[in-house]
Design brief:
With about 180 residues, the protein is mostly helical. Helices cover about 70% and strands about 0% of the residues. Helix 2 packs across helix 4, helix 4 packs across helix 8 and helix 7 packs across helix 9.
């Protein structure tokens, strides 16, 4: 299998019964998906479970993917739906207060950002309401564009822009209060 196979080609191959093609899709997405879920939930075990369930559902429902080139967005959509379902089953207090000590790794890949600032941003992100946290993580940490985020989160672009503005404003205010 060629290194440069596109997601669309790999999806087609997986649908034709080539399990190694789906394995390559998993390999390409797993780190990003796990990191997204870890930052969303704040819990390693929960993120691992959601990630595994996402890939299982993705494999089982691959034939339902209409736009084969948007595999990554579709997979994140499955993950968000699973996360939201779990959140509804949990008590509201537990669902909105992720464990911050289970998140390690830098918020930014920039070595110029002080460690204290990285920790403050991580803590502030965990304190955001889930719908704001989703938008911040998808946009800034995973590089999704608004049209992709609209598909993943099943809401209008205008709503996402409003949520992003609100989330950035809350983060800015939180950082100002810590200084």
């Amino acid at each position: 299998m060629a290194q440069e196979d596109s997601d669309k080609q790999l999806v087609e191959q997986a649908l034709d019964g080539h399990v190694e093609a789906f394995n390559l899709l998993v390999w390409r997405c797993q780190r990003h998906l796990y990191n997204f879920l870890l930052r969303l939930t704040g819990d390693r075990t929960h993120a691992e479970d959601l990630c595994q369930e996402t890939f299982l559902r993705g494999y089982l429902h691959l034939k339902e993917l209409r736009d084969r080139e948007r595999f990554r967005s579709w997979l994140f959509r499955i993950a968000v739906n699973l996360y939201r379902s779990d959140r509804r089953r949990l008590s509201p207090l537990a669902a909105d207060a992720p464990e911050s000590e289970s998140l390690d790794g830098p918020v930014s890949h920039s070595p110029s950002m002080p460690r204290e600032t990285q920790l403050a941003i991580r803590t502030l992100i965990l304190r955001l309401r889930p719908e704001l946290r989703e938008v911040i993580l998808l946009h800034f940490f995973h590089g999704f564009h608004f049209d992709e985020m609209a598909e993943i989160l099943d809401c209008p672009v205008s709503t996402l822009k409003s949520r992003l503005y609100k989330a950035v404003d809350e983060l800015r205010t939180g950082l100002q209060h810590q200084n």
